Amino acid sequence: MLRLGIIGAGKMGTTVARAAVAAGYDVAIAGSGPADDIALTVEVLAPGARAATTDEVVDHADIIVLAVPTHRFRELPPDLFDGKILIDAMNYWQPVDGDDPELSDAADGTSMVVQERFPSARVVKSLNQLGYHQLEENVRPTGALDRVAIGAAGDDRVAVRRVMRLLDRLGFDPVDAGPLRNGLALEPDGSPIATTFSANELSSLLSRAALVKDGEP
């Protein structure tokens, strides 16, 4: 059975949960407190998923989506995701996360900071490119001409491939974005509406970003 765990019961977490349930996944989702605190929210906003504690979510699945306000990842124990594929779906946003030099000045992207926090997790940057409403509106079947691409960047190549299969099942064209430091190119520029790309467009954008990062014109 396909299983997915989600940490974060906000708008992004419940949107991913709905898409995953529709794709046939058994989904467990946790908030910041007891499972009972989010049971009604999950029942209404992500029917078919189940509310759980954080520990239960981690036990439930090998792939976990981390979708909490970015600064709050530090509240989780460093060994919580040991051996798990951890999808970093977070984006640092100063109005919500406050002034955080470690995140705002992360030269190789905030996912590198997340990887340092969870050293034994298999971190993959993905599912962060679109707002929750865009994520829901752009789900398309495999082969659709207007399918939107989502990148996946990570140093564990097996983990990246598994996340790419998840993206495809959720309704998006997956693009291998390379190592985790390339996740910087997947982070939004602060615009209220994120730009959507086809697979070819996103691949070209990532290639150009990699050349610039390596000091090539």
Architecture overview:
The chain has nine helices and eight strands. It has 217 residues and is an alpha/beta fold. The longest helix is centred in the C-terminal third of the chain and has 15 residues, at 199-213. The mean pLDDT is 94.
Query: Which term fits the overall shape?
Result: globular
Query: What can be said about the biggest beta sheet?
Result: 8 strands, mixed
Number of helices: 9
Strand order of the largest sheet: 3-2-1-4-5-6-7-8
Stretches where pLDDT falls below 50 for ≥5 residues? none
Radius of gyration, in Å, reads 16 Å
Helix content bin? 25-40%
Structural class: alpha/beta
Question: What percentage of the residues does DSSP assign to strands (E)?
Answer: 15-25%
**How many β-strand runs?**
8
User: What's the overall average pLDDT, rounded?
Assistant: 94
Helix and strand pattern: EHEHEHEEHHHEHEHEH
Terminal residue distance: 47 Å
Please specify the SSE layout and strand pairing.
Blueprint: E1 3-7, H1 11-22, E2 26-30, H2 35-45, E3 50-51, H3 54-60, E4 63-66, E5 85-88, H4 94-97, H5 101-104, H6 110-117, E6 122-125, H7 132-137, E7 149-154, H8 157-170, E8 173-176, H9 199-213
Parallel strand pairs: 1-2, 1-4, 2-3, 4-5, 5-6, 7-8
Antiparallel strand pairs: 6-7
Q: What would a concise description of this structure say?
A:
With 217 residues, the protein is of the alpha/beta class. The chain has nine helices and eight strands.
Which labels suit this protein?
alpha/beta, globular
